[in-house]
Structure formats: structure tokens, C-alpha cells
TrEMBL record:
Listed GO MF terms: DNA binding; histone binding; nucleosome binding
Region of interest (Disordered), residue spans: 457-551, 607-705
General function of this protein: Component of the FACT complex, a general chromatin factor that acts to reorganize nucleosomes. The FACT complex is involved in multiple processes that require DNA as a template such as mRNA elongation, DNA replication and DNA repair. During transcription elongation the FACT complex acts as a histone chaperone that both destabilizes and restores nucleosomal structure.
Annotated SMART domains: HMG, Rtt106
Lineage, uppermost ranks: Eukaryota, Metazoa, Chordata, Craniata, Vertebrata
Name of this chain's protein: FACT complex subunit SSRP1
Compositional bias segments (type: Basic residues): 516-530
Domain HMG box: from-to ranges: 544-612
Keyword terms of this UniProt record: Chromosome, DNA damage, DNA repair, DNA replication, DNA-binding, Nucleus, Transcription, Transcription regulation
Pfam families: HMG_box, PH1_SSRP1-like, POB3_N, Rttp106-like_middle, SSrecog, SSRP1_C
Biased composition (Acidic residues): 473-495
Compositional bias of kind Low complexity: 496-506, 646-663, 690-705
Basic and acidic residues compositional bias, start-end: 531-543, 633-644
Length: 705
């Protein structure tokens, strides 16, 4: 048989609500961990007195009773798991797992039994309902009636606040059944009564949540906050204590995590946050004699104490609630503080990376444990590149976004999250992001803004277009939208079909006169771009690479060593550190790297000579081919211009006949016009064919014409 049994999605019934968590049964005992609060209930195997299996609303449930009267209820089991649990209880706890069903007859008349801290209302031998007496906040009596009031549960949508029991009179003399009932309840109930004197009182402490100044009275079983407007009674149900230094190093936060929270109307305060000045001291005397202090607190407190106010409050609270005080771990931000300035929701605050979680103070306070985090995410700031956002998503699907974090904190926070082995959602992009933030570290505010640079370029282009359009007249601005002119620009740019634009029309002589000036301007603007493209294309990837300097050779050889000596160092800090080491290096060691650099330079010169001799012959060939092509292009242009002049003279001789026939146009005339246009198209295509022939074929073609 297995030594342990584990069950997920088990619900513990606490104060009328079901808390989700994990249940583990082992030889040593039973452990339940609450998924929401992280609180752990540990029941030793030797303390178990009884185990009961019964059918409940969420399937089947397990009720465990301990020898000191505590009751634990766990629901969410399947019916098939009874045999496995029963065998485990027999083998390891030597207990019989009894099956008891609840009575569902609906009767309201029965017997009340008190067993430990549990009140059970039974009909016959079957229980109808059970009330943990620790949930009772008040018990009052009437003539034949007992009223139980309960603590309000904030986790449940509907809370049971009051139950009344009718107790019939008995014939026994000297025993009042109502008083006996009430005494049984009060002996186990969690009733807060300010009886006796307070152990100590702290006057006028500054409280951030709930806001105001309060006197804190420390009683043996609870705390009493007394303010000008509100009073709060806090039972000793404190989950955690935190002592956090402020970023200014002059103040301290003392945070008390409460479950259940304190209430002010409809507002719930899950955290009590006190703010202290480090310079404020106090002398404290406990309202107890030395023997009582020693017996109750076992040396953790003394009758007379003195020191800083925040130290005294934290020390007394630690002894009273018997909880450890959590302080920040070894995390240090860019400024040396143990916290990060950021914003959560609408307010600014401080995020503290702890050894087992994150806590944000103060409005609203947030505590997130590492074991409930599904993943974290680093995102760029929405408004500026000088900050980034840190997002946390829990396993329950809740998302927390801490925004406006300075980019200098990125490296420190990323290394901390990575060391804690948290799942980083954008881990694949971490190197690129880290490098970009490190590059920004030493830059000016006005540099490295890609969006701003793009806007400037677009603004320049718009200004140039506006200047071009404003230079000419209104007629010329209309021409700037003429698609025919765009064709001319293209023809001028690529030096082909240049004669097509000259024969486009003879009607507007001004337009023809203005075009060459604009063409020349466009050619002037565009030619440098063409040269740049050609120069980029002309770069040979096979050319030898330039040799590195002595410093760069040394840096490449020692980069990994510097990284290992300074783990988590950024790229800029690494460059600075390398510069310092190189500067401090002796001349003898530098000479060694100078010799290596000189050898590399000689090898480069040798390789360049070999490369240049091989490339000269190729460049000579390419030059000859370019000259040949230019010669052919000139010849083709001359032929095309002659053809264009001949066609122009023919069209001018035909124009009088065309004017004569304008008054009457027959179908035959239209078709002949179409055919003539088709012939012109043929001639144009033939001319293009002639232009593409080599010189020898051109002569034969002209001879045939």
C-alpha cells in the first residue's frame, strides 16, 4: 500500500464557506493547503480520534475529529474513493472510517450534543446539522431560548448570522437548562470580550489602511484599534506579518495580513498597514509581572523594553500571534533599494520582491505567492519607451499589471524572476528585450525613438512636396496630378523610351517648355538614390574582413570570463568594466595583444592583394561590356529619333485632308481610321523591334525599308 494519498480540488468547510485546496494523507498525519491563502492545516496522526465518511452536497465528505476536540471537514471526494481511504486509515492510523448519513427528514425537534468544539443537533442517532463553536461571536439567553450569533463570512455570498434554540424547562431543581446550554457554548465560542487590562498600548500610530491615527491596545487574545471615528477588534487570526523598508530609507512599513478581514461598512480590509519613522523611539512596560511574561511568552518579551517604535510593535505582535516576520530578501533594485516604484491600477506604490512572493503597498495592498503564479510577463510601456510593465497571472486566472516601472530595473527584476524559476511568458524574446533596454541605459532622451524618426522623415517629404507645388503657377500644379507626367518621370529615370513623351502632343507649347525643367529637377533628386543603391549592391561579400584592434581581440577572448565574474551584468556595464580592465592592464600584456593585432593586419593586407588581383581582370571585362552597351544604346536612340521625325512630317501633310473630311464621317472612314491606328501601333512595335536588334541587323532592316 502507498505511504501517501493525495487529492486535488478538495474543499475544506470553514465558517460556512468552502475553501479550495489540496489534501495529503501520509503516515505522519493529514495536511491540507488552502489554494487561496496558502494556509496549511497539519493534523498529526497521533491526534486523530475519529473519522466519518458521509454524503454531502459536493459528493462525499470526510470529517475528522481530534482528541483535543477540533473538527475538520473536507468535501469533494468520489464515492469510489471510500475503499482506498478506509484501507489507508486502518493501515496507518488504526481507525475505522465510519459511514454516517445525515438526517434529511426535515424535523426541527431533536437533541443537542456538545462534543469538543462542535455542537451537533441530532434526531435519533443521525445528525441533522453541526455548528463549530469557534464560529460563534455572541451567545444570549432568554426565558426558554438561547440565541447564537456568528461571525460574518466575507467569502460566502450568503452568511448565516443567527440561530435560536428553544430549550424546554425540566423538572430538576437547581439546574437551569438555558444557562447550562449557554455555558457550554461560551466555553468554546470565539467571543471577543475586552475583559481586564491591556498588556500594552501604543498611542497615535499612523495607519494607511484603514486610514487614520489609531491607539492599538494589545489584549491576550485580540487587538483593539481605537480611532476618532471607528473601532476595530481583531482576533488573533493573523496570517502573516511583513516588515518592509521604505524606498527613502527613513520609514518602515509594518503589514499585518488578516483572515477574516476587518470591516468598515461594506469595505473589507485584508491588510492592516502601519507606517513608522525610523527615528521614533519608545520605552515600553508590559502590564504583567515578570513571571507571567516569562510563562506566557517564553523569553520572547520582557517586562521592560526600549528601542525603535517599529521594532517594539513588530516584536510584540510576533510574540502575540506566534507568526514569523517576513522581510525582503536579497533583491536590490537599480537605486540600491529593496523595492521597485511602480503603479497598480490608478495609484503609485512600491513592489517588494520577497523570497516566496511579491507584495505591493499600499493602495490597494496585494500579496502574491510564488506557488500561485501561473506565469509572469514583461511588456513595453504603452506611453513611453522609458518604462515597462510587469504582469503576473495566477493559476486562478487573476491578472495583476504593475506599470510605469523604470527601464533600469528591467535587468535586476528579470534576473530575480529567472532565479526563482518562475514561468516567463515571453522568455523567447528576453535576450532582445534585455539588450534593447541596456542599450537605452546610456542614451539621451531624444535618441533611439524609431517612431519619432519616422515622423520626421515623413514631415521632410511633405515639406519637399509642398515646396515643389508652390514653385510653379496654378496650371502647373494641375499638371502635377497628370498621370502622363508620371510616365515621363519614369522614362527619364530609366533612360528608355525617351522619345515617347516628345510626341505626346503639339497643342500646348508652354507645357512642353516647362516639362524639361521639372524633369531635370526630378533627375537631380533621384540620381543620388540610384547611386546609393548601386554602391550597396556593389559590395562584395567575398571581400576579406577588416582586422580587429588589439582591444577587440582581448575583449572577445575575455568576455565570458567577465560575465562569470559578474553574473547578471548588462551589456553596457560589461563594456564599461572591460574598458576599466584594459586601462589598468600592464604594457607587457598589452604588447602581446598588439602583436596579435599586427599579425591580423598583415594577413588582411595579404588577402586584399590576392583579392584585388583576381577582381581587376573581372572589372576590366565588365567595363568593356558596359562601353559596348552604351554604344549600342546611342545608335538605337539616333535611329528612333530619325523615325520619329519622318512620321511627324507625314502626319502634318495628312492634316489638311483630315480637316476637309471632318464635316462628314462614314462608317468606312471610321474603320479606316481604326485600321490606320492599328498600322501605327504595328509600326511602333516594329520600331521597338528594330531598336532591340544589334547594329549589323539594324542596317539590314533599314535597307529592307
Amino acid at each position: 500500500m502507498a505511504d501517501t494519498l493525495e487529492f486535488n480540488e478538495i474543499y475544506q468547510e470553514v465558517k460556512g464557506s468552502m475553501n479550495d485546496g489540496r489534501l495529503r494523507l501520509s503516515r505522519q498525519g493529514v495536511i491540507f493547503k488552502n489554494s487561496k491563502t496558502g494556509k496549511v492545516d497539519n493534523i498529526q496522526a497521533s491526534e486523530l480520534a475519529e473519522g466519518v465518511w458521509r454524503r454531502v452536497a459536493l459528493g462525499h465528505g470526510l470529517k475528522l475529529l481530534t482528541k483535543n476536540g477540533h473538527v475538520y471537514k473536507y468535501d469533494g471526494f468520489r464515492e469510489s474513493e471510500f475503499d482506498k481511504l478506509s484501507d489507508f486509515f486502518k493501515a496507518h492510523y488504526r481507525l475505522e472510517l465510519a459511514e454516517k448519513d445525515l438526517c434529511v427528514k426535515g424535523w426541527n425537534w431533536g437533541t443537542v450534543r456538545f462534543g469538543g468544539q462542535l455542537l451537533s443537533f441530532d434526531i435519533g442517532e443521525q445528525p441533522v446539522f453541526e455548528i463549530p463553536l469557534s464560529n460563534v461571536s455572541q451567545c444570549t439567553t432568554g426565558k426558554n431560548e438561547v440565541t447564537l450569533e456568528f461571525h460574518q463570512n466575507d467569502d460566502a455570498e450568503v452568511s448565516l448570522m443567527e440561530v435560536r434554540f428553544y430549550v424546554p424547562p425540566t423538572q430538576e431543581d437547581g439546574v437551569d437548562p438555558v444557562e447550562a446550554f449557554a455555558q457550554n457554548v461560551l466555553s468554546k465560542a470565539d467571543v471577543i470580550q475586552a475583559t481586564g487590562d491591556a498588556i500594552c498600548i501604543f498611542r497615535e500610530l499612523q495607519c494607511l489602511t484603514p486610514r487614520g491615527r489609531y491607539d492599538i491596545r494589545i489584549y491576550p487574545t485580540f487587538l483593539h484599534l481605537h480611532g476618532k471615528t471607528f473601532d476595530y477588534k481583531i482576533p488573533s487570526t493573523v496570517l502573516r506579518l511583513f516588515l518592509l523598508p521604505h524606498k527613502d530609507q527613513r520609514q518602515m512599513f509594518f503589514v499585518i495580513s488578516l483572515d477574516p478581514p476587518i470591516k468598515q461598512g461594506q469595505t473589507r480590509y485584508h491588510f492592516l498597514i502601519l507606517l513608522f519613522s525610523k527615528d521614533e523611539d519608545i520605552s515600553l512596560t508590559l502590564n504583567m509581572n515578570e513571571e507571567e511574561v516569562e510563562k506566557r511568552f517564553e523569553g520572547r518579551l520582557t517586562k521592560n523594553m526600549s528601542g525603535s517604535l517599529y521594532e517594539m510593535v513588530s516584536r510584540v505582535m510576533k510574540a502575540l500571534v506566534n507568526r514569523k516576520i517576513t522581510v525582503p530578501g536579497n533583491f536590490q533594485g537599480h537605486s540600491g533599494a529593496q523595492c521597485i516604484t511602480c503603479s497598480y491600477k490608478a495609484s503609485s506604490g512600491l513592489l517588494y520582491p520577497l523570497e516566496r512572493g511579491f507584495i505591493y503597498v499600499h493602495k490597494p495592498p496585494v500579496h502574491i505567492r510564488f506557488d500561485e503564479i501561473s506565469f509572469v510577463n514583461f511588456a513595453r510601456g504603452t506611453t513611453t519607451t522609458r518604462s515597462f510593465d510587469f504582469e503576473i497571472e495566477t493559476k486562478q486566472g487573476t491578472q495583476y499589471t504593475f506599470s510605469s516601472i523604470e527601464r533600469e530595473e528591467y535587468g535586476k527584476l528579470f534576473d530575480f524572476v529567472n532565479a526563482k524559476k518562475l514561468n516567463i511568458k515571453n522568455r523567447g524574446l528576453k535576450e532582445g528585450m534585455k539588450q534593447s533596454y541596456d542599450e537605452y541605459a546610456d542614451s539621451d532622451e531624444d535618441q533611439h525613438d524609431a517612431y519619432l524618426e519616422r515622423m520626421k522623415e515623413e514631415g521632410k517629404i511633405r515639406e519637399e512636396n509642398a515646396n515643389d507645388s508652390s514653385d510653379g503657377s496654378g496650371e502647373e500644379t494641375d499638371e502635377s496630378f497628370n498621370p502622363g507626367e508620371e510616365d515621363d518621370d519614369v522614362a527619364e529615370e530609366f533612360d528608355s523610351n525617351a522619345s515617347a513623351s516628345s510626341s505626346s502632343g503639339d497643342g500646348d507649347s508652354d507645357r512642353d517648355e516647362k516639362k524639361p525643367a521639372k524633369k531635370a529637377k526630378i533627375v537631380k533628386d533621384r540620381k543620388p538614390r540610384k547611386k546609393q543603391v548601386e554602391s550597396k549592391k556593389g559590395k562584395d561579400p567575398n571581400a576579406p574582413k577588416r582586422p580587429m584592434s588589439a582591444y577587440m581581440l582581448w575583449l572577445n577572448a575575455n568576455r565570458e570570463k567577465i560575465k562569470s565574474d559578474h553574473p547578471g551584468i548588462s551589456i553596457t556595464d560589461l563594456s564599461k568594466k572591460a574598458g576599466e580592465l584594459w586601462k589598468a592592464m600592464s604594457k607587457e600584456k598589452k604588447e602581446e595583444w598588439d602583436r596579435k593585432a599586427e599579425d591580423a593586419r598583415r594577413d588582411y593586407e595579404k588577402a586584399m592583394k590576392e583579392y584585388s588581383t583576381g577582381s581587376k581582370s573581372e572589372s576590366a571585362k565588365t567595363e568593356r561590356s558596359k562601353k559596348k552597351k552604351k554604344k549600342q544604346e546611342k545608335q538605337m536612340k539616333g535611329k528612333a529619333e530619325k523615325k520619329g521625325a519622318a512620321s511627324k512630317s507625314l502626319s502634318s501633310t495628312k492634316s489638311p485632308a483630315k480637316n476637309m473630311s471632318e464635316s462628314f464621317k462614314s462608317k468606312e472612314f471610321v474603320s479606316s481610321d481604326e485600321s490606320s491606328s492599328g498600322e501605327n501601333k504595328k509600326e511602333d512595335s516594329e520600331e521597338e523591334g528594330v531598336a532591340s536588334l544589334p547594329p549589323s541587323s539594324e542596317e539590314s532592316a533599314s535597307g529592307s525599308d
